């Protein structure tokens, strides 16, 4: 049994990424709360990626021979990444949690259970597994296997299953984001929504990782090219660490550790007291003057009315309310629409007339916003009130 170990530049680089990844994931999970619950999924996603590249480090350096019992422990990671990405995106855009969310983890859980056959193998068998993947030119140990580590042959299909899982969940995550920006009449590629952009960038990075994964598995024997993925993840983690060091409020909001752009609010001159004053003015304007009912309502117009800059108004709405300007506008419009629909005096008013009264030019946009916020279409809501 060859237990030689060695360190090179790539393995050291990945180890630094592992160290920083563990710290970042700890704080993301620890700081998750009711208003940024999405960070729990993000923290678990980062932790999953970190543990996966840590096994790459062990294999690349040969240190896995010192801890052979945990060989292949990260195999289910590829099946977990997609569900965690999707649930993080879903919760970040305020889609409610579902009792069925746990179903997304059934496949990786079953595969983890299947790995029992692997964990039951002796160290010699696990050593053979290691050299098969990372040193195919080394001689294997001659063994008589009393129990197969892959009785159903699922390991040979794991890479394919991982690729399919990533494609499906990346598509689902993109669908959530596209639906969100469409409510504001924007494109996912050109959106100015400060909440959506980092989420979009995260999906892009996961997509890049997926492409690298497929490229590596098609062009390298066994696991010899996995360090490309490990290096990419490490780069993201290190750049995120630098961003955290320059952004004291990083963990106080839902953002993506894969968004490498500098927050446009990082150098804001607003103090906490300034933000609270602007928030009070925004709330007062929306509640007392029915600003939201104007179908031409805009961020710049709201800023003009409360005598603040559009940039500062946008910052306060994003940071204090965790929504975009258009989402805030939609919430007030839908709330007013509910009152109008609940009033018997308005039974003769059509849905289109009510949509115009609360500031919408399009009945379709009104229906989409109403259903997203209330879970029902305006017609369904009216029927539920009258029955």
Uncertain ranges: none
Radius of gyration: 26 Å
The general outline is elongated
The topology string of helices and strands comes to HHHHHHHHHHHHHHHH
Largest sheet: none
User: Helix share of residues?
Assistant: 55-70%
Figure out the total of helices: 16
Strand fraction: under 5%
Count every beta strand, where a strand is a DSSP E run of 2 or more residues. Answer: 0
How far do the termini sit from each other? 76 Å
Mean pLDDT, as a whole number?
Answer: 86
Q: Give the tally of structural domains.
A: 2
Which class of secondary structure composition applies to the elements?
mainly alpha
Write the layout of secondary structure elements.
Layout: H1 9-31, H2 38-61, H3 77-92, H4 106-114, H5 116-119, H6 123-134, H7 158-183, H8 196-219, H9 227-245, H10 272-288, H11 299-305, H12 310-321, H13 325-342, H14 351-357, H15 363-374, H16 378-386
Helix pairs in contact: 1-2, 1-9, 2-3, 2-9, 3-7, 7-8, 8-9, 10-12, 11-12, 13-15, 13-16
